[in-house]
Design a protein that fits this description.
single chain; 269 residues; alpha/beta; 8 helices; elongated; binds magnesium ion
Length: 269
């Protein structure tokens, strides 16, 4: 990937879609330049949606994490896999369907709040995300339910996530374990990036044209891939997980800091 392969920035930017972990912050530390860049975006009046595959918090919890670090954000501007999961599932399953969740409390709570019944007995649907209390029993329940015909949803395929200066196994690692035992029956439906369900939700919220929407993230296989598939101008910021992935997906731009984005100033009329 050389500089000449890159596209020109859109002439008119109508909206921003920003990833969180590795893009705005790492753990509890804001990434240098991110605070200033978001401030400039807010000043420009261009709307922002925060889009994350992370299902371990609710949108309200993400909003307080962001504001606690000094970023200006509200719950309604945040789309994560915990929020999106019951909405996507509801497109193919009746309210009240039985769901077994391998994942964080925020994911389970969001699914329950949407009117689904949470159970480990004969579920119609299995939803798998990052579960820091994963047990063999949970794997067994999930695998058996899927083998018996339950629908298989997964929050996201990320196999590595940043944890301080180290890396942790992500939701995708747990999904892969279950997939390895059920691949002869079905394959998971992914809720998060690189699928376009969440980016399309973001476009609806922003009310922007995809080509005039700048999507920024630190991972090619999820952030850049999802952005491109949704028709957005997709930017890789090299502040997150190191580029261990080899991929045929070429970002529209690669930047080292969010401050490299040409953020327009609000026109004074
Ligand atoms: Mg990220």
């Amino acid at each position: 990937m050389s500089e000449t392969d890159f596209k020109e920035w859109p002439e008119q930017i109508e909206g921003f879609v920003l990833d969180l972990d590795g893009t705005l912050y790492r753990g509890s530390e804001p990434i240098p330049g991110a605070f200033e860049a978001l401030h400039l975006i807010r000043e420009s009046g261009i709307p922002v949606v925060f889009l994350t595959n992370n299902a371990t918090r609710s949108r309200e919890q993400f909003a307080s994490k962001l504001t606690g670090m000094g970023f200006k954000a509200e719950a309604r501007d945040i789309i994560n896999t915990a929020f999106a999961a019951p909405r996507l599932i509801r497109e193919s399953h009746a309210a009240g369907s039985a769901v077994f969740v391998i994942g964080a409390r925020a994911l389970e709570r969001s699914i329950r709040k949407a009117g689904f019944r949470i159970t480990d007995k004969d579920p119609d649907i299995v939803v798998v995300g990052l579960d820091r209390s994963l047990t063999y029993q949970k794997l067994r329940t999930g695998v058996r339910a899927i083998l018996a015909g339950a629908a298989f949803y997964a929050t996201n395929p990320d196999t590595l996530i940043p944890h301080g200066s180290e890396l942790d196994p992500g939701a995708g690692t747990i999904v892969a374990a279950i997939e390895s035992a059920t691949a002869h029956v079905t394959s998971p439906i992914f809720i998060g990036k690189p699928e376009t369900y969440m980016p399309n939700m973001a476009l609806m919220l922003l009310g922007s044209k995809p080509e005039n929407t700048v999507a920024v993230g630190d991972q090619i296989l999820t952030d850049v891939s999802a952005g491109k598939r949704a028709g957005m101008f997709s930017v890789l910021v090299r502040t997150g997980v190191p580029l261990v992935q080899t991929s045929a997906i070429i970002p529209d731009r690669i930047i080292r800091s969010l401050l490299e984005i040409p953020i327009p100033q609000r026109s004074l009329k």
